[in-house]
């Protein structure tokens, strides 16, 4: 059963299994709709990827490998937040831009052989090309975020801005893979050209001649497909994921005293008159 539209606010606690609203349910209860334990839908149930946990380059490498090999499992662990997600997007798009730069410079040098790459020279052109590619990849990532949020609204899913950023951040390893595959395609095609030079390939010669263009494009397209595929898997896994603040809307376990009250630190033992209600995320008494 799809949850009512009114329950899809960013602060509402939803069951990650079916999207049922869990506001007011106890921590040790189960979802009334699908039976998934409430505690498994809390934000704390998502420890975050290795990158989000702040493990540096090692964390980035672990996150990238898991995104490409175990995306479904990774997207059940990522934390829904925007800050580290934005950093990961910037880091991956920068690496992708750097990897693509030699390819773009080679193409420009072939198209403008006497212009010194637009007249700037090789060294002067490198930062310009990197900057242009970085902006392009960032724009494509933001466009994907807008598309994911629109897709969520159409299908009645909760795809917030933080969810879209988190999903595309971990999918942006596709830009790194695309840059690496494109660069590998250039070197592979150059090797094939060298090896087949002077050999009578007959009917295979047109294929050999097309390799310098086809292989790099296959690499670039593979990277784009990887990004899109990971984004789709991610939004499916995070469509009801709960961000920070949602846990404040769940009731304490049955083992805690009734009344959902928290004792004032100045109150003497046994004095319930000085108890104060626990505040929810909106500042109102729970």
Could you characterize what this model shows?
This protein is mostly helical. It has a domain at 59-245. 52% of the residues lie in helices and 1% in strands. It contains seven helices and two strands, in the order H-H-H-H-H-H-H-E-E. The protein has a two-stranded antiparallel ribbon. The chain starts with 55 loop residues before the first helix and ends in a 9-residue tail after the last strand. 31% of the residues are buried. The model is unreliable at 257-286 (pLDDT under 50).
Oligomeric state of shown chains: single chain
Structural class label: mainly alpha
| Structural shape | elongated
Q: Write down the Rg.
A: 26 Å
User: Helicity level, as a percent range?
Assistant: 40-55%
What is the chain-wise order of helices and strands?
A: HHHHHHHEE
Percentage beta strand? under 5%
Poorly predicted segments? 257-286
Total helices: the number is 7
Sketch the major β-sheet.
2 strands, antiparallel
Q: Mean pLDDT across all residues, rounded?
A: 80
Report the strand count.
Answer: 2
Q: Distance between termini?
A: 27 Å
Cross-sheet strand order for the largest sheet? 1-2
